[in-house]
Amino acid sequence: MENTWVYQGQEPIKIKTFLHSLGMGHRLFNDIKNGAGEFQVDHRRVRPTTKVLPNQPLTVTVQPEPSDSSVAVSEEPLTIVYEDANWLVVDKPVGVASVPGPHVANGSILNRVKGYLIANDSIDQRPHLITRLDRDTAGLLLVAKHNVASSMISPQVEGHTMQKEYRAIVTGTLEQDHGMIDAPIARVKGQVEREISEDGQPALTEFWVEESRGPWSLVRLRLHSGRTHQIRVHMSSIGHPLLGDHLYGGDLSMTDHQALYANHLAFTDPFTQTDLAFDVEMPADFKTLWNGLV
Hints:
Elements: E1 2-6, E2 13-14, H1 15-22, H2 26-36, E3 37-41, E4 44-46, E5 51-52, E6 57-62, E7 80-83, E8 87-92, H3 109-119, E9 128-129, E10 138-144, H4 147-158, E11 163-171, E12 178-182, E13 185-187, E14 194-196, E15 204-213, E16 216-223, H5 230-237, E17 260-269, E18 274-279, H6 284-291
Parallel strand pairs: 10-17
Antiparallel strand pairs: 1-6, 2-5, 3-4, 3-6, 7-8, 8-10, 9-10, 11-16, 11-17, 12-15, 13-14, 15-16, 17-18
């Protein structure tokens, strides 16, 4: 796998410094330096300590990632919203896990992506899920096709600059049409649930009310952090649990899973330095549920 960037700076720069500015982590750089790949400047192989001059191209070649034998191959369907040499954006349906687990050995999105890459003779066959969703949450997921992409997107993940928005049906009418929920979230010892706790990790959720129907509201939410069950915990904490959310006090009379889907995903492609944004329409079952509320 090979990627090339042209250095646009004014002064010579070390290869490591240049790649770090683009997002590449120290671990991957060291792996390449120690034999997992090579660096080229002006199409000539160079030492890792070489400096890149203004307007020179830097090419990084990394050995292909072999298949992970612990991840089963699935031929189940995969809805692809976007694909290029580095990324897959996938629309995950309700009821499908993001990754394999104790009760899901195959059929997860990761299994399906692996199957897709193998079927298409991809050089790299070890996909990396950059974002994840709960099994019963539908919507957009970002997958890196190789470890270079995974490394270079990590600053946006860790810095919470990747934009992720959701829509949810919640109980009640909110007092504000727009607001922020700033409350730390912690594990509940020995349980799957999370809870608001002073000892938890910082968590920030922004919301907009799009429409209200009787005792229900359709809400758009943006994550400014990435805690497990963040939206579900935060909305329940302010007295507006998600419809169908069995863990956090949602009404179960109309659906057996939380009414939530990831409708928007945006990030800056570290390979091209362009902004990419993706949206999906309201899933059919979510739309039917919402339209049936009075």
